[in-house]
Design brief:
The protein is an all-alpha fold. It has 13 helices and no strands. It has helices spanning 40-67, 74-95, 98-103, 109-122, 132-160, 163-167, 172-187, 191-199, 203-231, 242-251, 257-268, 280-287, 291-301. It is globular, with a radius of gyration of 19 Å.
């Protein structure tokens, strides 16, 4: 392991908060198939999160448990353990949406099987001899997670500020799931990058794994949106296109293409640090009012599991 950067990035401010897993639960009985009224494309574009995140975040947890022995800083170790707890809860919460989709005529299994293969086989553990090869593969995956977390934090910041979804009458339970998750992504946005810097930090590895992460996310996301649109039983000849995504960004119901493009050079900058993205204060404020998060806190305070 080696850090090849002459100057390690530093946070713009010390916004660290103690990370904890909030044991949220959601009821989907009243959530319609198109939870953004009269907008199946935007609904399903965001629904892709439910397909990608359960397997992806289980993979995060699996990799981070392997890297714990490499952490030599007690504060960072504490953050990573908190991160693991939050990501495990995210995976569970999104996984619980899938039976609801199936009940409404959209069986996600054919697509989630492909996502499971991607994370468990393609990016999973490999039969490698102990030593440099095994360590190299572990560090590659740590760097991949840092790159992916750049985009989960980007999406978390976006959904916390996506007021147009409220104006469109989006289902409040789904919005709370997305904003609870998004707020925690903003809350822990520095952990993955700081872990990568701690155990390796090589700039070439950062660029290489960013390219892989960005390409994979774009590929999987467009396939997921297309899968939903083609299999939605209420949509005739459903299609997913970049034009519709672009227009959704212009309307404020999806992240804008311009904002996504501008996020690329920020991550690749030698002076980048995730604390430059989003607002911890905003994230913490939402978590203090989120119906699911406050209910979870009340159950914990009352001693309920």
């Amino acid at each position: 392991m080696s850090n090849t950067q002459s100057r390690a990035p530093r946070p713009v401010a010390d916004e660290r908060v103690a990370l904890k897993a909030r044991r949220v639960s959601f009821s989907w009985d009243r959530t319609p198939l198109h939870w953004i009224p009269d907008d199946p494309f935007t609904t399903h574009t965001i629904n892709v999160l439910h397909l990608l995140l359960p397997a992806g975040e289980r993979w995060f947890v699996h990799v981070y448990k392997q890297v714990l022995p490499y952490i030599r800083d007690d504060r960072l170790r504490e953050d990573v353990i908190g991160f693991i707890g939050q990501e495990a809860m995210h995976s569970q919460a999104h996984d619980e949406v899938l039976p609801h989709l199936k009940e409404q005529g959209l069986d996600p299994t054919p697509y989630t099987a492909q996502v499971d293969w991607f994370f468990e086989k393609l990016l999973g553990d490999r039969t490698l001899p102990p030593g440099r090869a095994r360590e190299w593969w572990l560090m590659e995956r740590v760097a991949l997670i840092a790159a992916i977390e750049h985009y989960t934090a980007f999406l978390g910041d976006w959904v916390l500020n996506a007021d147009e979804l409220d104006r469109k009458g989006a289902d409040p339970t789904m919005l709370d799931l997305l904003r609870w998750h998004g707020a925690e992504e903003v809350e822990h946005r520095s952990v993955a990058f700081e872990l990568f810097e701690h155990v390796d930090g090589g700039y070439r590895r950062r660029v290489r794994t960013w390219a892989l992460a960005f390409s994979a996310l774009m590929f999987l996301w467009q396939r997921g949106a297309r899968f939903f649109m083609e299999n939605d039983p209420t949509v005739l000849d459903g299609k997913a296109s970049f034009k519709e995504f672009y227009q959704g960004g212009k309307r404020g119901v999806l992240p804008s293409t311009a904002a996504m493009v501008k996020s690329i050079p920020r991550y690749l900058s030698c002076s980048y640090h995730p604390s430059q993205e989003g607002s911890t204060a905003q994230a913490v404020a939402y978590l203090a009012t989120s119906p699911a998060a406050t209910a979870a806190e009340a159950r914990t305070s009352n001693g309920a599991v």
